[in-house]
Structure formats: C-alpha cells, structure tokens
C-alpha cells in the first residue's frame, strides 16, 4: 500500500455556476468551486458540497459532466467525479485505490482508472512523484 499527500493550491478559475432547480426555492445558481464530489445512484446524482450539504438531483453524471471544468474535476469511478481541490491524498489498494478528501470522506478509485487519476493529480502536484 502506498500513500501520496497533497498540498492546497490556488483557487480555480471562474467557471459558470451550476443552475439547479430545487423544489423548495426554485432555480438557483451554485458555484462549482464549492462542489466536493458527485456520486451517481441509478438515474440520480448526489451532489456533495463543501458546507456539508447533500442534494439528490434527478439527473445522471453524464448530464453534469459537461457543465464541470475538466481541469478541476476528475472521474474516479463510473459513478463518482471529484473536485481535485478537495483531494488530500491518494492511497493504493489491491482493488484500485482510495481518495481521501479534506472533508474526511474517502472515495474509491477503480483499478482501471487508478493510473490516470494519479497522473492527473500529479500534473499539478509535483511533490507526488
């Protein structure tokens, strides 16, 4: 098992906010910089925010992916996309890997995506290698 640690980087470039419709308040705008990760469950997506909020939205990850900046979000698994600014460290396991977030949560990385995820994070974090 190997472990890689990361340091915080500068804030991301401005990106158009996500336009989400909430039943209680109607259409609202949310900054993608505050989005920690998205997780798919069937035809729904959980959006997990930096302030601890979780929203279940009736859309797939395929719907949200084009609305997210590719330099900021990384696909970890077929059902998970994470904001690289919230990644604290990577951990290699026999079944792929784990991503430890600054929020304390741990997400799995598929075996097939491990090398790509590690490389994508290493591009902006030279202390990885």
TrEMBL record:
Signal peptide: none annotated. Residues 20-123 form the HTH LytTR-type domain. It comes from the Bacteria. This is LytR/AlgR family response regulator transcription factor. It comes from Spirosoma flavum.
């Amino acid at each position: 098992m190997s472990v890689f640690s990361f340091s915080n980087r500068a804030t991301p470039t401005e990106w158009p906010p996500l336009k989400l419709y909430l039943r209680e308040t109607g259409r609202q705008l949310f900054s993608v910089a505050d989005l920690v990760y998205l997780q798919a469950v069937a035809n729904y997506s959980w959006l997990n925010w930096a302030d601890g909020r979780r929203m279940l939205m009736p859309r797939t990850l395929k719907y949200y992916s084009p609305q997210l900046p590719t330099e900021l979000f990384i696909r970890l698994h077929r059902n998970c996309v994470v904001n690289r600014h919230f990644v604290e460290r990577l951990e290699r396991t026999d079944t792929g890997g784990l991503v430890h977030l600054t929020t304390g949560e741990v997400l799995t990385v598929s075996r097939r995506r491990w090398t790509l995820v590690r490389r994508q994070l290493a591009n902006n974090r030279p202390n990885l290698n």
